[in-house]
Design brief:
Mean pLDDT: 86
Number of domains: 1
Radius of gyration: 20 Å
Number of helices: 7
Largest sheet: 2 strands, antiparallel
Length: 230
């Protein structure tokens, strides 16, 4: 599509829609953010109630029948704090438009999105390696429960963030993928509080793989929902 044709479509779409007031946009965004938080928290609490007797903060457990491992509180605070920072950066990348009405450049969305899982994995495993038994293997915990929890928690935020973004004129699929990574990063934070395992294969399956699943789902939904339509 040429720049002239794209400009014409943008102007036609803008003329066809009533422009909401700034107050209406602000109120709408607050409601959507509250829905995202409420659905994610509700999913997390429900999952924890079913799978761990309502235990939301898990610091350790039985690695083997005769070996009990406890995650140091400083390690938990450090990994969760890093996850919070990455989640905030991912939301800024996915939901912001940058300096253009057409949104962020494609290279920002692509490279920034890929940096999210890399950063989360490196931060989690890297810090855990500095503590005794921090990355010990848990034979009974391959990572399937964490994968399920990540996807369950992220569904509500993913749909809410897509509603916040509304339109992505230039790169709807890439914007959708970035939103998927952002939803996954938010889910990573609560999963990190619930899961004491930092064994690399477990983290790759249960924590990193959901990020790419959500990014793929976000790309599909982004192409369908964020594209400019007549």
């Amino acid at each position: 599509m040429t720049d002239g044709a794209l400009k014409t479509r943008v102007l036609e779409a803008a003329a066809a829609e009533r422009s909401p007031t700034r107050k209406e946009i602000h109120r709408r965004n607050i409601v959507i953010c509250l829905v995202a938080a409420a659905t994610g928290i509700a999913a997390f609490v429900t999952f924890a109630a079913v799978m761990s007797g309502g235990e939301l903060l898990r610091r350790g457990g039985e690695v083997t029948p005769h070996r009990h491992v406890i995650r140091p509180m400083w390690l938990l605070i450090t990994t969760a704090g890093g996850a919070l920072g990455v989640a905030a950066a991912s939301l800024w990348l996915a939901l912001g438009r940058g300096g253009s009405m057409l949104g962020r450049p494609s290279r920002w969305l692509l490279y920034g999105g890929l940096l999210i899982p890399i950063s989360l994995f490196a931060w989690k495993v890297g810090w855990s390696m500095a503590f005794e038994d921090g990355t010990v293997a848990w034979p009974e915990r391959a990572g399937w429960r964490c994968l399920s929890l990540s996807l369950l928690v992220a569904v509500g935020p993913l749909l809410s963030f897509l509603a916040l973004r509304r339109r992505a004129v230039m790169h709807p699929a890439l914007n959708g993928a970035a939103i998927g990574f952002a939803a996954g990063a938010c889910a990573w934070l609560v999963v990190d509080l619930w899961c004491p395992v930092a064994y690399a294969p477990h983290v790759l399956l249960g924590h990193v793989l959901p990020l790419f699943i959500l990014a793929a789902a976000g790309a599909i939904l982004g192409q369908a929902l964020l594209s400019l339509r007549r």
